Amino acid sequence: MSSQCLLTVKQLSEQLGCSICTVYRMAKHEIPSIRLRGRDIRFKQTDVDHWLERKKASPFLDPLVMPSLGVDLSLDNYDKLYLKGGKNMKSKGRRWTYPFGSVYVRPSRSGKERWYIYYRAESRQYVREAVKGATSRAEALKVLQQKVTEIFRDSTGMKKPKARITFSELAKTYLANTTQLKDWRNNKYRLDLSLLPFFGKLYLDEITPRHIEEYRAERLKKVKPITTNRELALLKGMFTKAIDYGYVTANPVKKVKMIPEGDCARERILTQEEEERLMAEAVPHLRPFLVIALNSGMRRGEILKLAWSEIDFRNRLVHVIKTKRNKNRLIPMNNILYRTLQELRSEANGSERVYPLKHVQGAFETARTKAGLSGLRLHDLRHTFATRLIQSGVDVFTVQKLLGHSTITMTMRYVHSFEAQMRDAVAQLDKKFAQSLLNSQPGLSPTSGERQVSQAGSVN
Question: Which of 123, 270, 285, 406 has the fewest CB atoms below 10 angstroms from its CB?
């Protein structure tokens, strides 16, 4: 028989979508083969076709290979073949068990049915997970089949590996698919400035937690922890996308700890005297912007995008939409803010924007320099607004709503800054009390007097 009419090992591996080693393994016990010499073997196409037909009819391997072989059974027939206990099996807790895993349903907190699957992973550990979007047992069972099939292909070498790509190639794909994100420009800047020079030439599967820790250490020598954390967060998100794309199976950034930012936040709170100096040096068109920022806590972008249609003068409310977190919020107007907005409306001349200018940074920096307030940022006006509310006795939850913070943790830093001021204020009583104690007891030394104050303060 001519070898030209037979399939080689490589040809059969391409036809079945598995590795060459898997073909050799199946040739020993499953697929009929013709041995020519040594490890050189061939296969008849008719024998391969008959073997595939037998596999389709096999009640033992169907649960693992049916999706790849194109077998489609109805749920009833499938239950007859594979459901433990038979088609009419009734299990407590509404659980259906198959040779390769289980499907069960439980009510969620809202009372709706939620489907789960339970199966054995390649690491021999059992996995239990909810099936998002599943509305029936058939849909959950289909997902279970897909999960088990992937594990089967991985363990037998039948799964074709994805092409390896470098980090720079992932960066191009990531940026192309995330142009709608608000932070797209910042992400591109972080990639071009630091991430690509460090990781760009590495393949994704070569990047380990050790590489990321080295990157973190290098960046901390040049920038602040908060900047490094933002870059690591971007890197983590990119690897999450790479897993979705099938390029890698794990996210190495998850094993690297972020840097604590408790002492990293840059906050500069304006005093009343500093505010007056800043207002005195500001050009006329900048002053309304400063008043709005100090009396509303809005971000610079929110003020520049604010439209007259979002101002409710009757109820004295500012509707802030399209915020940083894509959540709308309401800000009541105090008298100063109300009068400032009224003046801007009288000068609007048909403009849709409350503040018609697009840029204020240059004018602000000039006023800041003239006022001698080095280090002051536009965003510090928002910090000043929040801190003044806390100092006035406004509860932290109300401040959170006014600022539009997604978590209370972000707002609590203003409470901490005020607590430090309160501790300093209370500490001043020590000196007054010590002096009063010395005056009432002339023979008492300052050292012993201070000791008595300390002891008195420690009594519960």
Answer: 123
69 falls within a domain: no
Same-domain status, 191 and 230: yes
pLDDT at 174 over 50: yes
Residue 307 covered by a domain: yes
Average pLDDT, the chain: 80
Amino acid symbol at 359: H
User: In angstroms, what CA-CA distances link 112 with 92, 105, 220?
Assistant: 18, 10, 48
Contact 202/213 with Cβ under 8 angstroms? no
Strand locations in 352-397, DSSP E?
none
What is residue 163's predicted lDDT score, i.e. its pLDDT?
72
3-state secondary structure 6-31: CECHHHHHHHHCCCHHHHHHHHHHCC
Q: Are residues 366 and 303 in the same domain?
A: yes
Instruction: Specify whether 287 is located in the same domain as 343.
Output: yes
Report how far residue 325's alpha carbon sits from residue 310's, in angstroms, rounded to the nearest whole number. Answer: 18
Please give the Cα distance from 242 to 195 (Å, whole number): 16
pLDDT in tens, 290-303: 999 999 999 988 89
Phi/psi at 334 (5° precision): -85, 180
428 — pLDDT class (breaks 50, 70, 90): low
Task: Read off the CATH number of the domain in which 347 is found.
Answer: 1.10.443.10
> Would you say 153 and 15 are in contact if contact means Cβ atoms under 8 Å apart?
no
The predicted model scores a pTM of 0.47
Domain final residue, candidates 255, 289, 305: 255
- pLDDT score at 316: 94
Same structural domain, 293 and 360:
yes
**Whether residue 317 sits in one domain with residue 238:** no
Is 387 inside a domain boundary?
Answer: no
Q: Is residue 411 part of a domain?
A: no
Say how far apart CA 427 and CA 393 lie, in whole Å.
20
Among 122, 156, 190, identify where a domain stops.
156
DSSP letters for 102-162: EEEEEE-TTS-EEEEEEEE-TTS-EEEEE-TT--SHHHHHHHHHHHHHHHHHHHHT-SPPP
For the stretch 206-239, pLDDT in tens is 999 999 999 999 999 998 888 899 999 999 999 9
Give tens-digit pLDDT for 94-124: 888 888 888 989 888 888 888 999 988 766 6
When divided into structural domains, the chain yields a total of: 5
Domain span holding position 308: 272-380+397-406
CB of 414 closer than 8 Å to CB of 383: yes
Q: What mean pLDDT do residues 335-356 have?
A: 89
| DSSP 8-state class, residue 166 | B
